[in-house]
Amino acid sequence: MKPLFLLIEILLILGVTIKTIEAEKHSKKQKGRNVTTQVSVNKVKQDLSNILEQGKPINIISKKENLLENKKNQHKLRRKGIRNKDLWKRNKDHLKPQAKNNSTEEGDQLFKTGIKILQQSKSQKQKAEAYIFFAKAADMGNLKAKEKMADALLFGNFGMQNITAAIQLYESLAKEGSYKAQNALGFLSSYGIGMEYNQAKALIYYTFGSAGGSMMSQMILGYRYLSGINVLQNCEVALSHYKKVADYIADKLEKSEGIPVEKVRLTERPENLSSNSEILDWDIYQYYKFLAERGDVQIQVSLGQLHLIGRKGLDQDYYKALYYFLKAAKAGSANAMAFIGKMYLEGNAAAPQNNATAFKYFSMAASKGNAIGLHGLGLLYFYGKGVPVNYAEALKYFQKAAEKGWPNAQFQLGFMYYSGSGVWKDYKLAFKYFYLASQSGQPLAIYYLAEMYATGTGVLRSCRTAVELYKGVCELGHWAESFLTAYFAYKNGDIDSSLVQYALLAEMGYEVAQSNSAFILETKKAKILEKEKMYPMALLLWNRAAIQGNAFARVKTGDYHYYGFGTKKDYHTAATHYSIAADKYHSAQAMFNLGYMYEHGLGITKDIHLARRLYDMAAQTSPDAHIPVFLALMKLQTVHLLQDILFFNFTKRWKWMTLDNTVGPYWDLFVIGLIVAVLIFLLKNRYG
């Protein structure tokens, strides 16, 4: 199927999707979730039918119209007696680029309209409508619109996932020089999703993508060279790739503060996952709104902050943020005053940029000793916004705010000493303040620390430390927003869409995405990979997450080697992973597993005393391990008692016979069952 004709099919899917979304919204209205709709479904259906009635792509029709116009012009010239073929040829050559330009301009306009709708829309229905504009623009040859449609087909936006169609469109785009298409094809080759599993080809695609300007390809290559994935491990090359992405992110962060990204772990218990602290449930949000309207100042400030930057799954809404901040400020909240000052300093739809108003609210907050207000006044004096530039005043306010532990003020102090703005350059002091701010996760402080370690400025140069710090900054990129969409897709049962999004983030080096992807693959519910590939791929991802410090992933890697999932059974390797998890991360599960292996001599030398010690440590580490440890120790004592009674005293008359030969390979489970039965019998007789 040709890519252009695929777009017509996509438009049909979008029409059905919009109807489905409308039905879902109608059912949600019964729960009090009203959604404002701006476009009628009838209008969308009419647009779809008009496109489908045309039967052929718009660019083909444009060519026919141009040809007809050329013939008319030629006929007029002949009627006037003009037989100059050169003149007609010049007219024809002139009309072709003119028609092409008109089509290009129309495609660009449609794409911009789609982007505008996507940015301003809050409902899924309105966002789906944006893709109709992208489809029309793509049909006119707009490269960016084609990329949008290919991404929608790959990631399953609005239920329109079609991996085969996405690959065809990406291959077409790659020939046109699209670096986004190169990155996507590299990702698909790396996992073998819809394409042949080929790491060498993936590396080539990523290399071309990074050369074309893909920040995601740069990040993937940085992670591969850092970890030695299908390339020779090379810290300096990894540093080069990560620095390019970190410079790009830092430039964005300097214009506006970065938005923290919620990264939900699917490996949490189901009861914790359903009420995850990273995502605010609708019912809880409604309860918070009720408390805010009742006058709870702390809740008002919290809701204002959530709406200001779009946290916990809530949409960014400056009007709601300002509304809650104003209510809290009237009640005397210094934090609310400071945040209002921040809104007016940066400027947005609800609070247009106004230095005087920002100064007023910052001063009100600072007079109450508020760190955010003090930092805000420091910014005004540092950049000369509404007041003359005064580094001495800025330094004074930054120091006061930093003493109260405000990380942004600590960063500003570090920057003043790093750049020598109003003070003598002092790299040791700069490092001190950058480090303090980085402990609270201040992204620009982390970036400048990376710069210092990369260049050896004020500290001993360390490539590895610089790369790790740059990596942390890179993970704040806009692509991390996929964590939310992937989580909601998983929660809604769209496993394939969730897996593709998590897998791409995993390829970029996100540890949480690696463990989430492995978790989904382990369930074998995904349909985009063959069943036999799932366990090996899950093992690969668990191992990558384990290397990055995930204790649960380390235990899982041990389990896969112990049971032979996705690899051959290897007790020695399993014991090695359990030992790392137990020693480095104090994992109770790893301690218990290792104790069991020492008890039975699986992959390691049998040691009953060490097994007992590990069981005891597991019980001390986690309350959940008490019952399993109790049963394991009871089994251990019972088995040794049986061995002493039944075998030790009779060795002179009979040959030694192991329990495996006499009772069977699962004798330990039999003994545990026997112990449980005896305990139940005793308890029943005691309390009966």
Automatic annotation (TrEMBL):
Q: Which UniProt keywords apply?
A: Membrane, Signal, Transmembrane, Transmembrane helix
Query: Where along the chain is composition biased (Basic and acidic residues)?
Result: 83-96
Q: Where is this region: Disordered?
A: 73-106
Matching entries from InterPro entries are given as: Sel1-like, Sel1_AlgK, TPR-like_helical_dom_sf
Protein name stated in the entry: Protein sel-1 homolog 2 isoform X1
Family label: Belongs to the sel-1 family.
Gene3D superfamilies, alphabetically? Tetratricopeptide repeat domain
Q: List, alphabetically, the SMART domains matched.
A: SEL1
Q: Which residues cross the membrane?
A: 666-683
GO cellular component assignments? endoplasmic reticulum membrane
Compositional bias ranges of the Basic residues kind: 73-82
Gene Ontology terms: biological process: ERAD pathway
| Organismal lineage | Eukaryota, Metazoa, Chordata, Craniata, Vertebrata
Signal peptide range in chain numbering: 1-23
